[in-house]
Write a structure and sequence with these properties.
alpha+beta, Double Stranded RNA Binding Domain, Ribosomal Protein S5, domain 2, 2 domains, 5-stranded antiparallel β-sheet, 4-stranded mixed β-sheet, 9 strands, 28% helix
Length: 172
Amino acid sequence: MAKTNFNKVKGGDLDLKEKVVAINRVVKTTKGGRAFSFSALVVVGNGNGVVGHGLGKAKEVQEAITKGIDDAKKNLIKVPVMHGTIPHEQFAKEGAAKVMIRPAAHGTGVIAGGSMRAVLESAGITDILSKSLGSANPHNVVKATFSALGMLREPVQVAKQRNVNLKKVFNG
């Protein structure tokens, strides 16, 4: 598996929009009855290549969402978005969840399901082909999608590393 080189971003003055991916009700049985708490998986992004995810846990749903948003703002990464799509194909795995993302032609739309769609749309990707393989657990799918997006490299960076022209990177 390739090494992830996440491009960490500070979330200070970014205009981030949040999406709640999953809310889970957790029940703990105690001597005095049942104790309910909630966990919320949240994705934030500015729609321009910056995206983050976080998990919040609390006794109330709204408080869990707020904690998740705060956690997501601490875990922002920069994704290379070119003409509304990604520069190259990528595969990643987290737990039993596997994701595959591919660049798509303009007008294709976001071909993704559930939690993967939330991450890709928050990143500002408008055209992409993707497939979630294996587990459909939202936590692992989001983490695998982040791993795949974090491994993407910009064409300019690849051309510089290989000492070739930018056109040569795309033509093989």
